[in-house]
Amino acid sequence: MSSPLKNIAVVGASGQVGSFITKAVISQGQHNVTAITRGHKPTTPRNRTAQMPAGLHAVKEVDYDSHASLVEAMKGQDVLIITMNVMAPKDSQTKLIDAAIDAGIHWIMPNQYGGYYPDDETSEFGRNDMLREGAVAVRRYIEGKGGNWIGVACGFWYEFSLSGQEYRYGFDFEKKSLTLFDDGEQKHTCSTWPQVGRAVAKLLALPVSGASPCLNDWKNKQVVFSSFALSQRDMLASVLRVTGDKESDWTITHEGTEERFKRGQEMFKQGRIAGFGIFLYVTVFFPGGKGDLTALRENEKLGLPEEDLDEATRVAVQYVESGKAKEWSLS
Fold this sequence. Notes:
The chain is of the alpha/beta class. It contains eleven helices and 13 strands.
């Protein structure tokens, strides 16, 4: 049996999911974690590192337009974890991958935190999901460079999605309104940010090879896990328990999933970015349950805990009340 990989580089260590992953990996006390961050410009504040999680081994500023800068920052690392906004420039990830391979990194966790995208193009999973094609292309790119990848199939981020505006899970907390997709009873799997962090940390704590579970179990595969399997009705019930509201306090309407998907596409074509959220989110609520990955999840294999739904909902409500959720708006 081999040992776990030691040196972990994280892009986006101060970001949304990146900060939870970074903190969880550091908390295990088994790894040296280095944050790879874009270098400051004269017009931007220099205290970027002040927002970084405590306990980092190092923080290395890079120039994304300099391959040499990226390679130098990644020398000596065993794993590269990439977390960045889906709206980031398309070539950002390939630049990081190129540098990682040239720096001798053989394990890469690409910027894929969400859906389950099997390589089989005929699979019903990921139906109408525009992110699938890009995700698979990045995997092939890594393999073509001689590297290994591990994708994260965790579903949507629960607190982030629930606290978002109507174009995500259909909830608008300010208006106390909810759009139910079809009848609102279709379940899908989703994960909290802490659960994503725990899963990645536990994965990296495994030996590379040997008896299962080991890292090689997920070599060039996705690791599938979740926090909950929920319908919109389940979410509403939790919201009512947490807030003390009655269902009659909320205005509830319905929209068909196919209708919503097409409407979101048209909005996006017109340049309205919220349309992207509408048609992306509704795909996991299509009839047939392909957004529910419960049968595929590997929580037990990773030793992940069961979570309290209302506690996670409470976090989402706090994001709304603090105004933090507005920072994630696509409007």
